[in-house]
Amino acid sequence: MAEPPAEASQANAASGSATFSLENILSNHDDLEHPKYREEDKPAGGWDEDTAEKPAAEGYCIECEDQPAQVHCETCEDNFCEVCFAAQHRKGTRSKHVSKTLQQKAPASNRAKGPVALEDQMEVEDDGKANSDDELERVVGIPIQIPGAQPAEGVKVAEWFVERSRFIPLRLLHGERKYLRLLDAALQVSEYTDKIDIIGGGMSKSKRIVHQIRELCAILSGLVLAADYKQGQELFTDRDFEANADFYQQIFELGRRHKIMNPDKMRTTYGKLMYILQDSQSPEVRDMLNFSCVKEIKTVYTVLDEHGALDVLRDDLITVATKEIYSEGRMRRDIQKDIKLKERAIEALAVRYERSGLPAESIRQCLYSIGDNHAFLRTNRDPCERMIIYLKDNFHATQAKDPKSSLAIRSGKGGARLSHDHSKQYAYVMQSLTLWREILHDMFHLWSLAEQDLLSEKSSYRLRDTGQGLNRVQPAPKTSRMMHAILHRAQKSVGTWVGSGVIHMGDENVPNALMFLDKYSQIYRILLPICNALGQIPALSNNPAIRSYIEDEFGSTENCIREILADFFRHGFDGSGADSFFSAGSCIDGASLFHLSFIANSAESRFGRLAEVDECLELVFDVREEEVLPCLLADRSFSTRQIFTMSSNTTKILITGATGYIGGTVASRLLAHPRAASFDITALVRVEEKAARLRSLGLKTAIGSYQDIDKLEDLASEADILFSIVDCDDAIAMQAILRGLKKRYEGTGQRRELVGPYFARMCSAYNHLQLGELADLDRAAAGTFSYQEPFNDTDIPGIEALPDAAWHRNVDLEVVKADTEGYVKTYIIMPGVVWGTPIGVVADSGVQNMHSILLPWLILAAIKRGQAGFVGLGLNLWPHVDVNETADLFIVLLDRIASHEAPSGRLGYYFAENGEFSAIEASKAVSAALFELGLSQHTEPAPFNDEELQSDHKLFFTGTHCRCRADRSRSIGWIPTKTTADFIASIRPEVEAVAKTAPTN
After folding, report:
1. Are 585 and 693 in a shared domain?
2. Which one of 320, 349, 378 terminates a domain?
3. Mean pLDDT highest for which of 224-228, 588-592, 849-853?
4. Residue 308 and residue 215 in one domain
């Protein structure tokens, strides 16, 4: 007997639902579809195709559709919120429309229980006071001011830092970064969007959901397996993803948090991450996984609020503790004074507000995070302000002083798609720069809202071909609302507005909030190199030859700067970068599309030849970024020259210290280099016996030392690349090397490369930054100096703030000066405590020193004492790095030098570290080894007493402190892997080796 149609349909549905399970999805059933959408004849609206336009919900703005209506336009017969009404009725005949204020009441959609879905109306959930309408209205009402990074010192901070901290992410801890690297590596190899974001090929919505779940589970499984193999094996067996929900939320939050604080990072993986999380928020995927992959970003505010410590943000001392320290145009002692004041302020706040559950280190982390935000503003927002100042100082608002100062453009001339007279173009440039400044000032707030829009559970996306490829088109009501508020402020600031006030969001121009973020993250890449180049021109004009050229070509330095600015203000804002004439200047930020076209053509312009006069304009760097920013004044004279493809087809390399601990390891790496056949390597060696063994390995040798000044100068004059890996304090020898390199330059006109590693300089030099005063010496000697913010090899002002009297600093200054003078490119490698056993042919030959300096010295002191020791509490920290990975950095740098991808000179500092250890940790490891070997009766170390410290002043050195991060080194491709645990494990073999040669007395 046949079943009734209704019953048959229900049976089939039940059968289909039974087969739709996580187990079957992960078992790769190709025909599996989501039962909810299986019966649909075409992809659901809002997925692959545009849906029919729907009216706004009753009581909501007709324009943005997500805010309560506040104004009724009787002419338009529509209701608007205040921001949208002001934007739509700003000028023209619409400015004369008659309107009336509506009475505030709850929108009808909040009470409706009919078929209208909240998500269809783009209803925005309440995410708290920080994102409420009242808060946005408050933003709109703020009088426009030139934004400052923070309140001035001595001024009451009130709630400024409290409000700002709501959107400042917390800086990642060192332990969290390993999970960040894991996430980034997983995203690099993932093909998620390639498999999911496709149209056609039989990929219906029901099948796409199955693919989403399958690919997402694959990524989740891989992350768990890589982080914890045992736990990963269990996941593959029971497929219980919910059990690891906290891990997934944490690792995805780390990636999002890191990206917000460092917009230049994760440039190829962040979008993939957000699209994965976007899909994970869909009801179908969440129901299948039984958890959400998304959690709130951890901010400074949430951490302090959780422990009732928001008063730290109201303390007036926070201004000093978080201020950005500038080095431009200041004396080194003034910079040093500011650094110390900042450190003391940080320590004072940490001690004052620490409490149970909120240690002092967490407070320091919060303060560092606020400082990171100020650094972001300096790099991203301040160039906008500098360009506004350039515009005001060099051009009149209404009339041009002369034809060269005119900003007028005409459509069809010089690639322009707009026609503006001087005054109109001046206003157009001013409004664009002002708007960018306001946006970047509130970028962290906008980023928070953009992520909320992207990851909203109530607003899905549509997959569409926007003319710029296949994109996810999704409304971004919160971001759009904030943008309208910022636009309103910018319009009030400039008074007049050229062009349209349309904000593209969720359309073909800006498909979603992710594209919005990416667009405004590029502003500093455009403006900062130009600002840096213009700032260098006055200093370059001090050179008589360059000044003569500038005066002959431009008339004066001021005219040169004005001509560059005029060219940028004309052709950087002329509509030439848009896809069509309609898009040229058709929206509030249309100018942001034009600059790449300008930059691409600027090298061929008249002022582009200025770069050929002096190599200081070859590249312009942002000293807080790892990436080299190519300037519009790019040096073309070196662009085709490669070190490894010179006319002789041979690269002459001179290496000193080739039998030393680090130098021998570098020599082994050079001999094993893929291009070793093109290297002509000469090693400076003290004795013939060792020289003979090196020659048997394929090296040329020269007998001599750093005391043979004339020989050293002659050898340097013949080298293309020189590795100086011996005494880093021998200024006389370094001057001889530099004279030889200069002699080669004067004879050939070609700059040579000098790579100067100075052993352990990272520790001693920065340690002496702390030991400038007796009080600091006492504090460091106590072994308690552990709160210092890590130094970074991208922080050039911090390095340049070192006292001239610091260890090795006098030699550093000579090396950097040589690069500035233009006859050599210099690179300084600064490792921390180097440890480990060298590997390579030089080590195998028996001529290489196989041990470092520091560890054997500490071990020998412990053997003589009968017990391992430390200074004070032993809490001071040092960075460490494996000797073989230190040598790897030399080779990575060598390869980057060949392709001109490594900054040199004052920017050519490369730290080498992969973690840090405390003095007490190392002492405990030494103590344990001595006890096990029967060389000590003590299982624990003991602090050095005053008598020991007075009798051996070198022991003070073990109480010094340094923390550093090798971000620039990693940015050029150096990837160290040896951890602190590996370092501690290496101490036992070192103890055994030293014990064999230690004196019996």
Report:
1. no
2. 378
3. 849-853
4. no
Which tens digit of pLDDT belongs to each residue from 759-800? Answer: 223 333 333 333 322 223 343 444 555 456 788 888 888 888
Does residue 188 register a pLDDT over 90?
no
Q: Is residue 125 in a domain?
A: no
Q: What is the Cα–Cα distance from 390 to 535, expressed in whole angstroms?
A: 11
CA pair distance 253, 237, nearest whole angstrom = 26
Angstrom distances, CA of residue 708 to CA of 711, 714, 734, 736, 917? 6, 10, 12, 9, 39
Dihedral (CA of 76, 80, 84, 87) sign: positive
At 825 the three-state DSSP class reads strand
- Which H helix or E strand runs over 684? strand 679-685
Lookup: tokens for 962: 């340094």
Burial 454-488 (b: 16+ CB within 10 A, else e): bbbeebbbbbbeeeeeebbbbbbbbbbbbbbbbbb
Domain with 79 in it: what CATH number?
4.10.640.40
What pLDDT is recorded for position 765? 33
**Residue at 614 is within a domain:** yes
* pLDDT 10s digits, 69-83: 888 898 888 888 776
Determine the pLDDT at residue 959.
81
Six token digits for residue 46: 């809002």
Same domain for 239 and 332? no
Q: What angle do CA 31, 34, 36 make, to 5 degrees?
A: 140
Count of domains observed in the chain:
5
Neighbour tally for 985: CB within 10 Å: 12
Are residue 648 and residue 617 in the same domain, yes or no? no
Report CA-CA distances (Å) from 683 to 321, 658, 704.
49, 6, 10
Per-residue exposure over 3-17, b if at least 16 CB sit within 10 Å of its own CB, e if not: eeeeeeeeeeeeebe
The two three-digit tokens of residue 448, written as one number: 């928070």
3-state helix, strand and coil shares in percent for the chain, rounded to the nearest 5: 50, 10, 40
Please give the Cα distance from 973 to 649 (Å, whole number): 26
Instruction: Indicate the average pLDDT of the chain.
Output: 77
Contact 368, 318 (CB under 8 A): no
Segment 913-945, tens digit of pLDDT? 999 999 999 999 999 999 999 988 999 999 988
Using DSSP bridges, classify how beta strands 71-73 and 78-80 pair: parallel, antiparallel or unpaired: antiparallel
Pair 508, 553 in one domain: yes
* Listed range (8-22, 382-396, 520-534, 864-878) with the worst mean pLDDT: 8-22
Residue 120 lies in a domain: no
Which of 16-30, 215-229, 236-250, 288-302 has the lowest average pLDDT?
Answer: 16-30
Q: Containing domain of residue 457, as a range?
A: 381-629
CA distances 845 to 617, 672, 681, 785, 836, Å, are 46, 15, 17, 42, 18
Residues 851-884 pLDDT 10s: 888 888 888 888 988 899 998 888 888 899 999 9
Nearest residue to 87 via CA among 463, 497, 661: 497
* pLDDT band per the 50, 70, 90 thresholds, residue 221: confident
Q: What is the DSSP string of 775-795?
A: HHHHHHHTT----PPPEETT-
- Same domain for 814 and 929? yes
CA atoms within 13 A on the CB side of 48: 17
Q: Could you tell me which of 515, 508, 633, 518 has the C-alpha nearest to residue 582?
A: 508
More confident residue, 555 or 137: 555
Do 363 and 469 have their domain in common?
A: no
Lookup result for tokens 């939050």: 253
CA angle 374, 380, 385 (to 5 degrees): 95
Instruction: Give, in degrees to the nearest 5, the angle at Cα 984 between 979 and 985.
Output: 95
pLDDT band at residue 384 under the 50/70/90 scheme: very high
Alpha helices, DSSP H, located in 758-915: 761-770, 774-781, 796-800, 809-821, 841-844, 854-865, 883-898
